[in-house]
């Protein structure tokens, strides 16, 4: 096929920039790092249990942008190898939280909500930045929606906990998740795996790799995921929360010399299914007749079902191209450059009343509630990095550039079932050009029809234009103090810093037909909503590590994180919030004890200023009002304990425990579930003083009544932060049993616990998931030559039913929820060659 982006081709071939860790972690061949202590055996066995600890290989990670064994990294890091990912049936980031308890994952409005240590993505409108960075081979994936793609053909996953402001920069205040893909090999090899499970799940994954010529290598990998829904739409009979995904990745590696190579990678992802929607949970304002939900009488009775007159669904197309150039300028100096381009398009369709009731002025006098959200994002980044390493001194310095342009469309209005042109006269009477209205809605009058009537522009149409341009320079030095005096030979000083500058712009032109479609018409122009802000920051890092012997390291690190302000796609919005800034203290111990078992312990405390939070409140011209704001202050303390190793030649185990105490220090805000904050749609406006109505929040006001807006603000100091359990742990065990024909049977199991998780800052039980324990089990048979394998598995063995997120839907005046997967089981057959 023809290349769609000629400018990108030139960029990938001529440009050279981004993290060296993509190259450092790239090879699927054994690392040549010499084994220095028993700790290497333990991390090898725990991270990739198919490798014996006697083969001399150490697990090499590139969390600090240079090759180090896991136990030599003075930071809280977990590495999960390819074998563990495959046998634990980890297919996406939500699956990852089962085996990495410090990672917490939610999902609403088709956006990934990744949290580490109480820091993550707190918003549900596109355009906002994440708080945990995701990188694929060194290239950042900026959109929260784009982080929902599947995991396949990976060498390992590295989870860095805590702020990574120096080396990973923007939007890594909570940490970073690094996906390191499998790379081309010099020998012809590959694998195939086929899984079949309940819900008619079919997962097929394959990869083939080898040489084209002596100096040109290739790798091609692909994956297919199909599954029936966990629920259904009782109105249309369609699946709900089913899965249909296709993905492929192709690589070419050019070994120009023994010291220079270029890796070109292209990836495509496609999703078209009925997932991503929110399910009905409860009315937002029980006992308040004026704020009754808009879908009463049409809700599904099973929580996993979703009744709707339209089929919910998600359609996604994503392309990514990466060029990684690496050359050794000398024995001590290496240059690495990674250039990346990503084109992401996605559409989400759902009915915001979560009900089969067809709302329209013509049928029941209520506002139409069918939502369509389309995202069109183009990003490119480039990072140039120099690594200098001699005895007692390692230095990483570099520069980074990032650009993204988003053009999301957010519509609420007429569905295809009740399409009418009744709002066209309102628009014409208001002097609105219909071509402009259709353009804001993202379609033309001839492209969509409802029966014999052309569907008019919807009652709320917002076509945003959001831009980000960022650059940074950074450096980190690890200085062995033994160069000063032999008495300090066991100490290493870490000094780093990053200077970042970012410019953000936002435009939100919109057409609104107020009062649920009755009028008047409100129009926001692109020029009238344009706003631009610039941010700059310096994030330092200072650390000291002490290694009294090869099997013990103690360290302390002070680090800062920075997340620039961002805009939102909301009708008429001119909001760009202030940045988030985090100061973190961390102390840790990494030890290898008896029998090669590694024990890693990290303790931390941080202060976060300006956490960016999003909510919607019912009422206003559109029926909902978006609030995007900064919380004044947040603080946290916690511990993370990781234990892993080979207990006996046949028995391996690993365990992780995370304790997080994160709360708001000062946050005065409105509560979207307090009816005193909601004006009755239409006229006259609701007065909370003269007519407060029934409420769960006390009277006359739980906080201070604002005399101008007549709303009630509350202080949330002491409340827990979102998406963060206080306690979380996982225990994993594997036991090998010799089997027929010299093969081997491995029994494995996981037990995972999470305490209660609150999905909003209001610390309400209805908007939370109570504590749970989940059990996964499996058995894998491998032939003696390790070519053929057969696995049976069960995940969430006891069918624990828990929410993964909640969201107060202001339009429908109800609370919606998404859910963790139910019990799944199946079998996998694999073949390696």
From TrEMBL:
Biased composition (Low complexity): 32-50
All copies of domain TonB-dependent receptor plug, residue ranges: 70-175
Start and end residues of each TonB-dependent receptor-like beta-barrel domain: 272-797
Family designation: Belongs to the TonB-dependent receptor family.
Location in the cell: Cell outer membrane
Keywords: Cell outer membrane, Ion transport, Iron, Iron transport, Membrane, Receptor, Signal, TonB box, Transmembrane, Transmembrane beta strand, Transport
One of the GO biological process terms: iron ion transport
Keyword Membrane: yes
GO terms under cellular component: cell outer membrane
PROSITE patterns registered for this protein in UniProt: TONB_DEPENDENT_REC_3 (PS52016)
Signal peptide range in chain numbering: 1-22
Any Pfam family hit: TonB_dep_Rec_b-barrel
Bilayer topology: Multi-pass membrane protein
Region (Disordered): 22-55
Name of the protein: TonB-dependent receptor
């Amino acid at each position: 096929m023809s290349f769609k982006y000629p400018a990108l081709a030139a960029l990938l071939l001529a440009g050279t920039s981004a993290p060296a860790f993509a190259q450092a972690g790239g090879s699927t061949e054994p690392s040549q790092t010499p084994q220095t202590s028993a700790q290497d055996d333990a991390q090898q066995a725990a991270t990739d249990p198919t490798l014996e600890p006697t083969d001399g290989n150490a697990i090499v990670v590139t969390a600090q942008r240079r090759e180090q064994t896991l136990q030599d990294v003075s930071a809280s890091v977990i590495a999960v190898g390819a074998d563990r990912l495959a046998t634990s049936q980890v297919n996406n980031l939500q699956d990852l939280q089962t085996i990495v308890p410090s990672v917490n994952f939610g999902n609403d409005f088709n956006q990934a909500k990744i949290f580490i240590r109480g820091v993550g993505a707190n918003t549900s409108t596109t355009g906002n930045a994440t708080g945990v960075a995701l990188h694929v081979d060194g290239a950042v994936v900026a959109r929260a929606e784009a982080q929902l793609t599947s995991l396949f053909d990976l060498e390992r996953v590295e989870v860095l906990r805590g702020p990574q402001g120096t080396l990973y920069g923007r939007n890594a205040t909570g940490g970073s998740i690094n996906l390191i893909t499998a790379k081309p090999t010099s020998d012809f090899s590959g694998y195939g795996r086929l899984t079949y499970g309940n819900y008619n799940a079919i997962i097929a994954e394959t990869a083939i790799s080898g040489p084209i010529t002596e100096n040109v290598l290739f790798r091609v990998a692909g994956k297919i995921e199909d599954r029936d829904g966990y629920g259904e739409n009782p109105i249309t009979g369609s699946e709900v929360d089913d899965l249909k995904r296709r993905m492929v990745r192709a690589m070419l590696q050019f070994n120009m010399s023994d010291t220079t190579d270029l890796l070109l990678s292209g990836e495509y992802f496609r999703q078209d299914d009925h997932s991503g929607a929110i399910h009905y949970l409860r009315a937002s304002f029980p006992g308040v007749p004026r704020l009754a939900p808009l879908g009463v009488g049409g809700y599904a009775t099973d929580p996993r079902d979703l009744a709707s007159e339209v089929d919910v669904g998600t359609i996604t197309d994503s392309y990514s191209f990466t060029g990684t150039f690496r050359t050794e300028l000398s024995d001590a100096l290496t240059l690495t450059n990674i250039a990346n381009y990503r084109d992401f398009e996605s559409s989400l369709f759902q009915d915001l009343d979560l009900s089969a009731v067809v709302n329209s002025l013509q049928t029941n006098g209520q506002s139409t509630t069918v939502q369509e959200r389309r995202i069109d994002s183009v990003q490119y980044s480039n990072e140039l990095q120099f690594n200098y390493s001699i005895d007692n001194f390692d230095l990483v310095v570099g520069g980074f550039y990032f650009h993204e342009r988003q053009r999301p469309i957010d519509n609420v209005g007429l569905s295809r079932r009740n399409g009418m042109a009744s709002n066209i006269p309102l628009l014409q009477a208001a002097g609105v050009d219909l071509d402009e209205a259709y353009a804001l809605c993202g379609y033309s009058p001839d492209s969509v029809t409802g029966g014999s009537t052309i569907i008019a522009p919807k009652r709320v149409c917002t076509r945003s234009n959001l831009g980000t341009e960022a650059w940074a320079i950074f450096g980190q030095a690890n200085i062995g103090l033994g160069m000063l005096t032999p008495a300090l030979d066991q100490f290493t000083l870490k000094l780093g810093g990053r200077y970042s500058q970012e410019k953000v712009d936002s435009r939100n032109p919109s057409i609104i037909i107020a009062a649920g479609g009755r009028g008047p018409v409100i129009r926001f122009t692109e020029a009238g909503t344009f706003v631009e802000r610039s941010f700059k920051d310096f994030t330092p890092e200072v650390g000291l590590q002490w290694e009294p012997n090869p099997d013990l390291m103690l360290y302390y690190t002070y680090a800062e994180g920075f997340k620039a302000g961002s805009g939102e796609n909301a009708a008429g919005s001119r909001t760009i919030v202030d940045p988030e800034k985090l100061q973190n203290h961390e102390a840790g111990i990494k030890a290898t004890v008896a029998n090669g078992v590694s024990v890693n312990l990290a303790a931390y405390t941080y202060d976060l200023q300006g956490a960016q939070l999003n909510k919607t409140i019912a009422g206003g011209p559109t029926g909902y009002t978006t609030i995007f704001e900064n919380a004044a202050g947040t603080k946290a303390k916690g511990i993370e304990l990781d234990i892993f190793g080979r207990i006996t030649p046949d028995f391996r185990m690993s365990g992780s425990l995370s304790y997080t105490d994160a709360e708001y220090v000062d946050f005065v805000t409105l509560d979207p579930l307090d009816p005193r904050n909601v004006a009755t749609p239409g006229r006259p406006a609701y007065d909370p003083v003269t007519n407060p109505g029934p409420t769960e929040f006390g009277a006359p006001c739980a906080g201070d009544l604002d005399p101008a807006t007549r709303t009630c603000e509350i202080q949330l100091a002491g409340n827990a932060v979102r998406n963060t359990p206080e306690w979380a742990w996982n225990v994993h065990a594997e036991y090998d049993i010799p089997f027929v024909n010299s093969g081997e049977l491995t029994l494995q199991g996981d037990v995972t616990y999470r305490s209660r998780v609150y999905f909003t800052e209001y610390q309400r039980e209805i908007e939370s998931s109570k504590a749970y324990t989940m059990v996964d089990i499996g058995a894998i048979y491998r032939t003696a030559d390790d070519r053929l394998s057969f696995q049976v598995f069960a995940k969430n063995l006891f069918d624990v039913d828990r929410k993964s997120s909640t969201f107060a839907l202001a339009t429908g005046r109800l609370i919606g929820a998404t859910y963790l997967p139910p019990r799944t089981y199946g079998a996998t057959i694999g073949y390696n060659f």
